[in-house]
Amino acid sequence: MPTTVIWVLVALAVVAIAAYILIMIMRKGNENRIHKLEEEKEKLLDLPIQDEIDAVKKMHLVGQSQNIYREWNQKWIDLSSNSFADLEKHLFDAEELNNHFHFLNARTEIDACEKQLDLMKDDAGNIRGAISELAAQEQRNSTKIQESLDLYEGLRNEISENAEAYGTTIGEIEKQLNNIEEEFTNFVTLNSTGDPIEAAEVLENAEEHTIALGNITKRIPEIVKTIDEEFPRKISELNEGYDKFEELEYKLPATLDFKQEISNIQDRMKSSTEFAERFELDRAESEIKLINDDINELYEVFESEYAASRLVEQNAGSIKSYIDHTRDNNKNLLLEIDHVSQSYVLTGNEMGQVRAYQAQIEQASNDAEELLEDIAENTEANSVFNSRLKAIQGLLEEIEDNQLKINDSLSRLKVSEKDAQVKADAFDIELRTIKRYVEKLNLPGLPKEYLDLFYMATSRVESLFKELNKVRVNVDTVNHLLDISNEDMNVLEDATDKLTDDANLAEQLIQYSNRYKTTDGEVAKAFNRAVQVFDNEWDYGKAREDISTALEQAEPGSVDRISNFYFNNKEVPDYKGIRR
């Protein structure tokens, strides 16, 4: 046999063996998956779902619970009767396909079986959970009922022991308690007859209603106490106060109808009670706040009127003497103004002001007479009398304050005149001192600008003396002249200082420049120019400037040295400090 044929046969044998092995592997894999599905199916069948359903069935469920039970029981019937049979058929088909070497079709069938089994597991879990919840709900109801009943019984006992604290609301409270008790009865009926789901809802409602009623009853005693105890007590006090005011013949403000206000308050109290009886507690509390505000306003009226009566009693008797005192002050002030006006010019219209005060005082006197008559006849409330009395007192106080201010201003006129005389004398002394001081400088002449300042200051001071020597001194004019004269004297002092410094330094610098006059032509020219300006033009500042410029060029630093020495050794002029 040829070698080539041998090799071909060998190759075919290898391929055949490999194909066989692959087929066996695929078949075995599918068998394993089918076997696993069989095992999981059996485990699912072995679950005690039917037992659990039978146990719940024995509870004899009704109503909503029974509907839920039937729904899930039917799902179990469908699952156990139909789904398992269908799964069994598909597993058988997969096994047949695998045995007949239709491996790919078998695998597809197996995949479908796995998905179907997963859905069946989910359905079984949901069925068990729902059935378990039905059983657990009854157990929870049994546990919770005692807690809810304890809460209810505690509330009922609390209300029963303190029934008086709830006033007329006790009827509605009892009604609500009975409604809650009916809900508990309904719960017991539903729970005992096999409807734990609906029973749980009823129990939850009963508990919520118990808690809500508890919250309401916590607020009611305070409302009842306020309406039934606090307000009647305060109304009684207000009525006693009203009777006392009538006994004392005190009047209340015309804008206040006391009996109508009390009637309005009582109507509001009735409304508050009705709100409370309907459990409209927010409205009841809001109404109580308004009532409390009204009562407090009435208290404030009584307190205000009583306080006003004390003030009227204390001050009414003294108002006439206060008017007489203010009138006497005004007369004396008129006399003082007349006396002072003989020596001083009055610029503040003092006489006109005081005469106006006289008219106001007379009007206040008329108002006081009318007020005292009204008080005697008791025509108005004391608060009105007190307001009128305070208005008169306020006017008199204002007049008296103004009288004092005018009197003080008159008293200050003499002081101001004396002070002005002292200052004028100081100006005169300083002028004469400056004049002597300048004369001692032995200057060839004085600049016109300086003389103008001196004569102007002298003229101001003369005007000041003239004003002070008048028969009737105008202090305002005097003070104005004082300010101007003081400024003029300051300017003159500064001008005198400058004149003195310029003249003295110009002389010293001119003398010092003599040493350079024959050797330095510029210094010689400056020397002659400075001497000319000094002796003939009397411009000492210009002379100082000209010689300083030339001398500084000839000997740098010499001007500062001479100036520093001069200022360091300069004596304080005797005109300094005279006005200080």
TrEMBL record:
Keyword Transmembrane helix: yes
Transmembrane regions: 6-26
Matching Pfam families: EzrA
Coiled coil: 354-381
Topology feature Cytoplasmic, residues: 27-580
Domain of life (superkingdom): Bacteria
Membrane topology: Single-pass membrane protein
Chief localisation class: membrane
GO cellular component annotations of the record: plasma membrane; septin ring
Subcellular location: Cell membrane
Residue ranges that the UniProt entry lists as topological domain Extracellular: 1-7
Keywords for this protein: Cell cycle, Cell division, Cell membrane, Coiled coil, Membrane, Septation, Transmembrane, Transmembrane helix
Gene Ontology BP terms: division septum assembly; septin ring assembly
Job of this protein: Negative regulator of FtsZ ring formation; modulates the frequency and position of FtsZ ring formation. Inhibits FtsZ ring formation at polar sites. Interacts either with FtsZ or with one of its binding partners to promote depolymerization.
HAMAP family the record matches: EzrA (MF_00728)
Protein family per UniProt: Belongs to the EzrA family.
Name the record gives this protein: Septation ring formation regulator EzrA
